[in-house]
Amino acid sequence: MLRAVLLFLFIAIAFAVPIALFHPESPLPDEWHPFEPLAVSDPVTPLTAWKLRRTLEDPLLCLEVLSDAADFEVLEDQLDGPNCGISPRLKITSVGSSQLDDLETTCATALTTAHWEHHSLQPRGRISWWSNQPYCSFG
Fold this sequence. Notes:
Blueprint: H1 2-22, H2 48-56, H3 59-66, E1 70-75, E2 78-81, E3 84-86, E4 89-95, E5 98-106, H4 107-126
Antiparallel strand pairs: 1-4, 2-3, 4-5
């Protein structure tokens, strides 16, 4: 009897997992879906680091994800040698709600900065130990 129950559970899970991952109307939220692209505004989950690494390895995906989290202009790549340069090169003017002086950097640096700004800097800026008022403002 126990074998039959375990076999049933195994078969049910074997069918449920692919449906949850590949069905167009998947019940998984985007932040928990391993095949959905990273969004900086998604809550942090155990999949976030993996999704961030995958995004940083693909320059086009990096630019796409960054377009929702920062204001930037794509510049011509600066290549000073075979292993030296900035590619893809961006000029960042804001990340999240933080305004910046024009900053030239790579997409990977800009995206990790946007992720840090959204998930670490902004929440800490809204917290005040003694009151509900923020003790600093970012924007």
